[in-house]
């Protein structure tokens, strides 16, 4: 993530990791069809019980593309990307115009690091339905993470112009603004993100980082604390809190925050580096 009080490299890493809805936000099937059974069990998302139930639905309706799309989404949420891809492939074999399945497969390809395939799937989804905001947002995320800020901004703004209520559109645009140092605009977008998803920590983390970049430590600290209160299992939130403590010269509290972040995610470099700077004997 980007901020002014610590090295830009660390800020950049933190901001990229604070993407809104880091868990798979796979699109539920939206077309009509014999999906009453599926709709009634989707709330379990990626649980083994839900996947088993969805498999039973497919056994009874082996030619229903929506059933494969929903089970693919469940596999994606469970982290079983190979089976997710297989189900989306089958959904598309049964219905080549299933634009939601293209967008869902694109998201899995993105998580697998297969960015060209992800872009191709988003393009196909939008070719079928040029008004599908979720595909613009997803493609924008791929462009943003690849450092293509201009194309990412265009996709987020296209979704926003369609009056989407998906908080990811505003969060994504806010991250682009942050990347280019437009922190006032970023704060506005993160505020909208928060209004659309008040129970998610990412909007608060994003807004807090822009507050911090503008020297508004008090509002930044308040946002990071809210993020922790909403979900105390997010390493980025604790790392961001540590940044404020460190900027204030309170290395003891900063070290505790960084240590908690590193405990949650031992591979999260901003937390590990922050702990190294602030723990006893650190530079």
From TrEMBL:
Whether Glycoprotein counts among this entry's keywords is: no
Q: Where is the signal peptide?
A: 1-27
User: Which cellular component appears as one GO term in the record?
Assistant: cell outer membrane
Is the keyword Transmembrane in the record?
no
SUPFAM superfamilies in UniProt:
TPR-like (SSF48452)
Provide a GO biological process annotation.
Answer: receptor-mediated virion attachment to host cell
Q: Which InterPro entries match?
A: TPR-like_helical_dom_sf, TPR_2, TPR_rpt, Ycf3
Keywords from the UniProt entry? Repeat, Signal, TPR repeat, Transferase
Return any one Pfam family short name: TPR_1
What's the protein name?
A: GlcNAc transferase
């Amino acid at each position: 993530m980007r901020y002014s009080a610590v090295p830009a490299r660390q800020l950049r890493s933190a901001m990229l990791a604070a993407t809104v809805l880091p868990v798979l936000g796979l699109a539920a099937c939206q077309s009509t069809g014999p999906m009453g059974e599926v709709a009634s069990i989707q709330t379990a998302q990626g649980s083994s019980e839900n996947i088993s139930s969805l498999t039973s639905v497919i056994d009874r309706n082996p030619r229903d593309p929506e059933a494969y799309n929903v089970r693919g989404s469940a596999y994606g949420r469970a982290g079983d990307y190979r089976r997710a891809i297989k189900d989306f492939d089958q959904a598309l074999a049964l219905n080549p115009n299933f634009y939601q399945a293209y967008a869902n497969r694109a998201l899995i390809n993105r998580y697998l690091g297969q960015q060209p395939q992800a872009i191709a799937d988003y393009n196909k989804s939008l070719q079928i339905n040029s008004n599908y905001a979720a595909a613009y947002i997803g493609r924008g995320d791929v462009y943003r993470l690849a450092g293509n800020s201009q194309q990412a901004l265009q996709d987020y703004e296209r979704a926003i112009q369609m009056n989407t209520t998906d908080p990811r559109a505003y969060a994504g645009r806010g991250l682009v603004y942050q990347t280019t140092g437009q922190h006032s605009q970023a704060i506005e977008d993160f505020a909208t993100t928060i209004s659309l998803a008040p129970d998610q920590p990412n909007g608060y983390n994003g807004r807090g980082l822009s507050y911090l970049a503008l020297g508004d430590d008090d509002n930044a600290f308040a946002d990071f604390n809210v993020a922790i209160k909403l979900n105390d299992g997010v390493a980025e939130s604790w790392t961001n809190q540590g940044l404020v403590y460190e900027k204030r010269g309170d290395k003891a509290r900063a070290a505790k925050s960084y240590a908690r972040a590193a405990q949650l995610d031992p591979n999260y470099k901003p937390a590990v580096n922050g702990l190294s700077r602030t723990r006893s004997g650190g530079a």
